[in-house]
Amino acid sequence: MTDQTIKADWIAVDWGTTHMRAWAMSASGSVLAEAVSDQGMGKLTRDGFEPALLDAVAPWLDGPTPIIACGMVGSRQGWVEAPYAAVPCPALPGGFVRAPTQNPDLQVHVIGGIKQTDPADVMRGEETQIAGFLARNKNWDGVICLPGTHTKWVHVSADEVVSFQTFMTGELFDTIATHTVLRHSIPAEGWDSAAFATGLSDAMARPERIAARLFSLRAEALLQDLSGPAARARLSGLLIGAELAAAKPYWLGQQIAVIGAGALSRLYVDALATQAAPATQVKGDAITLAGLTAAFRLLKG
Question: Quick one: fold of 167-282?
Answer without folding.
Answer: Nucleotidyltransferase; domain 5 (3.30.420)
